[in-house]
Amino acid sequence: MSLNDPQWGKRGGGGPPDLDEIWRNVNRRMSELLGRKPPQDPGEGGTPTGGVPLAGLLWLVALVIVIWVASGFYIVDAGRRGVVTRFGRYTETTQPGPRWHLPWPIEAVQLVDFSQVKTIEIGYRNTPKNKIDAEAVMLTEDENIVDIEFAVQYNLKSAEDYVFNNRRPDQIVSYVAESAIREVVGKSKMDFALYEGREQIAKQTEQLMQQMLDRYRTGVFVQKVTLQNVQPPDKVQAAFDDAVKAGQDRERLKNEGQAYANDVVPRARGAAARLLEEANGYAAEVVQRAEGDTQRFDKVLAEYRKAPGVTRERLYLDTMQSVLGSTNKVIIDQKSGGNLLYLPLDKLIEKAAAAPAGPEPSPSPATTRSPAPATSSPDSGAGFDPSRSREALRNREGR
After folding, report:
1. 217-263: per-residue pLDDT in tens?
2. SS3 per-residue string spanning 186-202
3. Domain encompassing residue 52
């Protein structure tokens, strides 16, 4: 048997299958699926068929078109935006929900997450212990070096700017953050950056970053800048701690001195005010007393002009009473010629004042004496001679 034998492919054996037979089987099955009568075999007297029927081809093309059109449907989740491009050019930004665009290659859509808050770290990675010196070391206005580690939180505010205006917007945010904080720290003192100015530096950095990102049209919104760690370099940490301790001691001593001054100065001012008020009171008292004495003298002078003798005697008696009223001496008139028993009245008065209160003892017969004769004291009425007192006053005035 030769290869030209027409029965070569139909006989049993291990030869390859007939390609025409395989094609006829495919056509028959396609016709059955499309509801048409399968083509007849040429060996059975039918008309030979060399390809797929036209109706089947149209159905196949329609199916492909439906699948192509259906590929344009997409869903935008909540918190996302869809950026639609037509032949690579921006067309629109779609909101959350089911959407449709012209299928590829005419239009394409890129979903951008708006709800995600991204974080970049400057000066460290993951934890502040993993410090990156190239990013953390900064120079202050007073030519000192500080290590600053901070984080920036941001999200998106414009999907088209974020997708089209910059090639690597996240890396641009990192560069802008480092540049902004270096500018802010470069205008601040070291002590300000380390202590009281941390919040202010973070706020100024946030504002400067937002201005730069808007100028670059990155579509990024900076939510917060957080300073994780601000300290001097590790090599000078010990010396810096000593300087800080010395500054704290200085402030403590200054506060103690200020507290002492606040205690002493008001007290001295109060004492000065008290002395001043006492001096003013004494001056007012002296002036008023002098004025009162002047008025009293004027009244006495008027009475003296009316009755000089009576007024003179009255003045003498008042003067002697005021002088001798507070003394414990006893004046005795020796010219009266009588015997006078002197009693130590001052000692008796002192003993009476010092003795406790109680019933007075009755006098014993041994200590009872006869009554002493009346003294000629000026205050007593029995032995007082007014003519003698006037004569003594005239003699005293004549001297």
Report:
1. 888 899 899 888 888 877 777 777 787 788 888 999 999 999 999 99
2. HCCCHHHHHCCCHHHHH
3. 19-65
Q: What angle do CA 378, 380, 386 make, to 5 degrees?
A: 50
pTM of the model: 0.46
Among residues 175, 209, 205, which one has the least CA distance to residue 188?
A: 205
CB-based contact 170:119 (threshold 8 Å):
no
Q: Which two tokens stand for residue 305?
A: 């002009």
Instruction: Give the 3-state secondary structure of residue 373.
Output: coil
Beta bridge partners, 112, equal 81
Q: For residues 178 and 120, what is the distance between their CA atoms, to the nearest angstrom? A: 11
The β-bridge partners of 125 are 127
Tell me the C-alpha distance between 56 and 16, whole Å. 29
Overall size of the chain counted in residues:
399
Contact 378, 389 (CB under 8 A): yes
What sign for the dihedral angle of Cα 188, 191, 197, 203?
positive
Q: Are residues 58 and 26 in the same domain?
A: yes
For position 110, what pLDDT does the model report?
74
Rounded Cα distance between 203 and 197, Å, is 10
Phi and psi torsions of 89, nearest 5°: -105, 140
Question: Looking at the domain assignment, is residue 332 inside a domain?
Answer: no
Cα distance between residue 241 and residue 237, in whole Å: 6
Distance CA 75, CA 78 (A): 10
Q: Classify strands 80-86 and 89-94 as parallel, antiparallel or unpaired.
A: antiparallel
Residues 62-71 have pLDDT tens digits of 788 888 877 7
Q: How far does the chain reach from its first CA to its final CA, in angstroms? A: 198
Closest CA to 183 of 212, 215, 220: 212
199 and 220 inside one domain: yes
Q: How many domains does the chain have?
A: 3
The CB density around residue 158, as the number of other CB atoms within 10 Å, is: 19
CA atoms within 13 A on the CB side of 104: 5
Give the three-class secondary structure for 242: helix
Alpha-carbon gap, residue 382 to 372, rounded angstroms: 13
